[in-house]
Amino acid sequence: MEEITLEELRTWAEDSYRLIDIRDEELISYGMMPGALSIPAEQLDGDAGAKLAAIPGDKKLVFYCQIGRKSRELEDVPGISGRECYSLAGGYIGYVRAALAQVEEDGERQRRAEESIRKKFHKQLLTPFAKACKTYRLIQDGDRIAVCISGGKDSMLMAKLFQELQRHRKVDFSLTFLVMDPGYNADNRALIESNAKALGIPITVFESNIFDTVDTVEKSPCYLCARMRRGYLYSKAQELGCNKIALGHHFDDVIETILMGMLHGAQVQTMMPKLHSTNFAGMELIRPMYFVRESDIIAWREFNELHFLQCACHFTDTCSTCHEDGTTSSKRLETKKLIAELKKTNPFVETNIFNSMENVNLSTVLAYKKDGVKHSFLDDY
How much is the pLDDT for 183? Predict the structure, then answer.
C-alpha cells in the first residue's frame, strides 16, 4: 500500500479522509489518533469490514498501525476496491513523536500536569496514592526510593505523585527516578526522555541487554524478561544507595492478577503491596498505586494530552504491555473484559474481588500454603 507521511496528511482537508486504526485492543487502550476509526487488522476480512464500506466513497482511507509496517503490507482488504488508500508512515509512534516535538519549552506541560493532580484529579489519584502509602506503611523516614519508570502512563504518573507527596514533607524520604533501557530502539528511548523532560522528572537511565537475551528463548520469554528486569532494577537501585524500588502496578492490575491466578493458575493469591527481596538483602519492593484505578490514570493522561510508551520488545517490534509477572497482554485483556462484563450486572464486582483477599476464612478452605508448606483442613478436623 502506498505510504503517506504525517506532514503530507496535514496538508489535506480534514473532511477529505478517514483514519483507520488497525491495532489490537491492548494497544488502542494507550491512545488513538483523533478522529480515527478502530478496526483491528484481524477483523478487516470479517464483519468489521462493513465499517469501511459505510465510509463515503469520496473519502480517502488512511490506515495506520503502531510503527507503519503492518499497514504498509495490507493487501486485498474487502470494501476498499477502487478506493484511494494509504498507509501512514511511522504509524502511531510517528504521530506521538511529532506531538512531542511540539512540547512547550517553558514548562507549561509540567505545570498543567501537576495542577491537574492537585485539583481536578486530587480525589482520584493523590488521595488513593497517599492512602496506600499509609495503609501498608510503604514509606518511612530515611527511605531512599528508586521510582522505576518504564515509560508508560502508570509509572510516569507514579513519579509525579511521588513528587507531589514529597512536596508536602510529612515524611523525610528521597527519590531516584530510575529508567532501565533493556534494548529499546532509538525512537522509543527518545520518547521516554522527552516525556520525562516535559513533565519535569529528572531520570537516571542505565542500559541492559535483556531484549537480546530473551530473543533466543522460545518458552516463556515474557516471564524471563520480567524476572530479569526486576533483578536489574534491584541491583542498580542498591548500587545507587536506595533501599526500596517502587513499581507502578495499580488497582486493576491487582484484581486482574487475582482472577488470572484462579482461572489460569489454579491458585488463590494476589499482587502484594510490598515485598522483601529474597536476593537483595535489605531491599524492598513497594506498589504505591495499589488503590489507584486505571480509568482515572487514563483520564489524567487524556486531560493533559500525554502520549506514553509501552514495552517495545524485539519479538514484534511493536508496543504491548509487558507485566512484572510475565503474563501476556492477551490474558490480561481477556480478564479485563471479563471483569467489565460482570460489572454490568454488579457495579461492586471490582471492589468485591479486591476485598476477597482480605476476607479469607481459613476454616472454609480445603487447603492453604504458608512458607511453602501445604496445610489441609483435615489436619485439624
Answer: 84
